[in-house]
């Protein structure tokens, strides 16, 4: 499962996309992507951060990362994919964004 980890270094907060995996019975963490100082996803060539949250879909041994946003339609909560962020594998492979 991927999640966002915050690190505070010298009064600055940094955000990372991290995934846990089990190797030889021990849990290890792998940084999949550096998200920046402000915690918003800022993609290359864009000046404003994207508003939304991370969603990970796992299909046949691969993890697909999406930036999604919730909205209400006819009284039901729906999700809209704002941006496809890349693909990795369950064992913490690099994200190809």
Kindly summarize this structure in a few lines.
This protein is an all-beta fold and 97 residues long.
Would you mind describing this structure in some detail?
The protein is mostly beta strands and 97 residues long. The chain has one domain (2-89). The protein has no helices and 6 strands. The chain has a 3-stranded antiparallel beta sheet, with no helix packed on it. A hairpin with a 2-residue loop joins β1 (2-9) and β2 (12-23). The chain is globular, with a radius of gyration of 15 Å. The relative contact order is 0.20. Mean pLDDT is 74; it is low at 90-97.
Major β-sheet strand ordering: 1-2-3
Order of helices and strands: EEEEEE
Strand content: over 45%
The low-confidence parts are: 90-97
Please give the alpha-carbon distance between the first and last residues: 18 Å
Largest sheet: 3 strands, antiparallel
Look at the structure and give the mean pLDDT.
74
Taking Cα atoms only, what radius of gyration do you get, to the nearest Å?
Answer: 15 Å
Total beta strands: 6
Question: In DSSP terms, counting alpha (H) and pi (I) runs of 4 or more, how many helices?
Answer: 0
Structural class: mainly beta
Helix content: under 10%
């Amino acid at each position: 499962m991927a999640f966002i980890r915050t690190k505070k270094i010298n009064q600055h907060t940094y955000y990372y996309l991290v995934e846990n995996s089990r190797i030889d019975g021990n849990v290890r963490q792998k940084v999949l992507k550096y998200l920046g100082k402000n915690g918003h996803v800022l993609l290359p060539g864009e000046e404003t951060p994207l508003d939304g949250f991370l969603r990970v879909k796992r299909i046949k041994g691969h993890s697909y990362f999406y930036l999604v946003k919730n909205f209400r339609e006819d009284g039901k909560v729906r999700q809209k994919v704002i941006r496809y962020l890349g693909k990795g594998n369950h064992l913490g492979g690099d994200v190809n964004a």
